[in-house]
């Protein structure tokens, strides 16, 4: 496994800031997604009867439509004002909205206003998430030595499995110390309220990080684009499409656990204990973390695109055996299925920061990376749990879900063959209208 020996103190601080910030952001994001499967259907949408769970999962997806808006805003400001300022702003937005979700009364207390407020706060989470990733990824990669961008860029990526690990861990602990009635009444609110502590820690770390040296170069040369979004879609729209499709294939598969579908299926359809299922997902989050770091490390050796292709093939091969093992109803088989599921997932996630950073000129890089990521999230993860639940309900078999995820994986694999690898390419400032050089024949 890659080691970080030889990394300067400043580089360690940057890597830590990128990783801790994304960890906090995604802890907050995943707490909602998991509770959508375990709690919100009964607390906020019970009036809909059998459709309550589908609508609860749909609220997870609604926020994704606001990610591109968050990406546009943060991308524009990040390309104009810098990466660091946007990282602090997005962290604050996510933290405040998460704490407020933990305070929203249920439908029995305030009626229809309860789900409305819940959805509005989820939208704010979506705006924050849309702008967060691009800044964290670029800060890490733009500070990195050229030969180690893949590894450095993997650190903000592992904030996602760490956030998943923490979210499931805190919920598992709360579940273990409360009765089912107490958990539904007030226990689920505890993780949302604990977010205050994490936000303070994250802000302290991020406020001490220097701005990206690549962006500083652009600022000193007064080469910043006045309209980065216009330049992005005028000259680099093919890159945006390719980046979105690559991430959609990863995101749809990842949201089987991060979006709460597997947790819901295992507890409601297979009748497994809720705490046990959450612990199983925590174990898989560790495997995802390791494989994501491995993906970044491998990307520095065989290239970003080749690493993606290996990961997509592993995703595709494991898709149906995954559901076969889950359906055994055995906790051990569930853990094995999730761990092996995480290998391909990590290899298609670890190289993403480096690949996206090398795609775009500095003047539109934040906008390009953030918008590619946000659109990919809409196409892939936005309604993946909802689609999965609907497919299972309408067909009566979970293998229909496997077919859906297999199609998404094939889309990502095919797209990867049209993307040119620019491993180690210069990240120095280039004109915003420089020709797109990373997509072939699209």
Automatic annotation (TrEMBL):
Major facilitator superfamily (MFS) profile domain segment(s): 14-424
**What are the alphabetically sorted keywords of the record?**
Cell membrane, Membrane, Symport, Transmembrane, Transmembrane helix, Transport
Kindly give the Pfam families that the UniProt entry links to this protein. MFS_1
> What molecular function terms (GO) are annotated for this protein?
symporter activity
Q: Which GO terms describe its cellular component?
A: plasma membrane
- Signal peptide positions are none
InterPro entries tied to this protein: MFS, MFS_dom, MFS_trans_sf, Sugar_transporter_CS
SUPFAM superfamilies reported in the protein's UniProt record: MFS general substrate transporter
What does this gene product do?
Answer: May be a proton symporter involved in the uptake of osmolytes such as proline and glycine betaine.
**Family membership:** Belongs to the major facilitator superfamily. Metabolite:H+ Symporter (MHS) family (TC 2.A.1.6) family.
Name-wise, this protein is Putative proline/betaine transporter
